[in-house]
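Sample entry (277 residues):
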Amino acid sequence: MTTTQTERTRGRFVLIGCGDAKTDQPVAARDLYTSSYFVVKRSYAEAAVQWARTADRRANSGGILSAEHGILLPRQTVAPYDTTIEDLRGDPIEGETHYRLPSGERAKSQLDRWALRVHSSLADWLRRPYAADQQESPCRELVVLAGSDYVDPLRKRGIFDGRPTAIRTGRETHTALPPKATVRFPFQERDFDGMFDQMNWLSDRTEELEATAKPARRTELSAFDGGFERESATWQTDHSDVDVEETEQAGLDAFESVPERFLATRQTSLTTDGEEE
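Predicted structure, serialized as tokens:
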């Protein structure tokens, strides 16, 4: 991945909508939904989070928006279910509830309760996606790829707003997003002509991301935790069979025909009268 591409995608997290078609047995969440539409969204998400470098971090840089579970992580084992957003609309919460939405309004319906679950899951996921003792979240951008039937109820209830206080009550609230994170909703922001237009756009974006992230001929090494990019030596790029993706250094014995100027020279010390020892 080039330096420009790394800078453009670093800190990007992706939340994709679930799907109706599912397997008939418990599997990892990334494999539960079987429609072509979901697979295209998943491919984009996996390409967009390659900045996270390690497999574990990449897996935790994407999430799935579910009507049954709120937010699922890709490797989380889940049983098939039939709950949809429509099942939650107009279904009141039984008894008195003391839960309040980020807007300050009292939660009254199952849809409100689902929105609160998403709010809590977002906070747990984005603030410490890799380690429980992580001091600062790497999330700088959240891309939400879901239909308006899922996104609109969440936006209406202020789930993505990140407000430090409730608008109506002035009461301090727990914000779901890290302080420096922004949110994008490509499906709602762009003028798509239906699902297939969305799929074509996602496929094109995925190809662009994958093309710039191929490790076979890397021209730089990067370290996520250190937050820097470094140009590799010219002799590294001439040996595509050497994997520099997972290491910051490679010994010279890993390369054939290394130019003599890159070999270590004999070290000498001088005596006090200027003669070599």
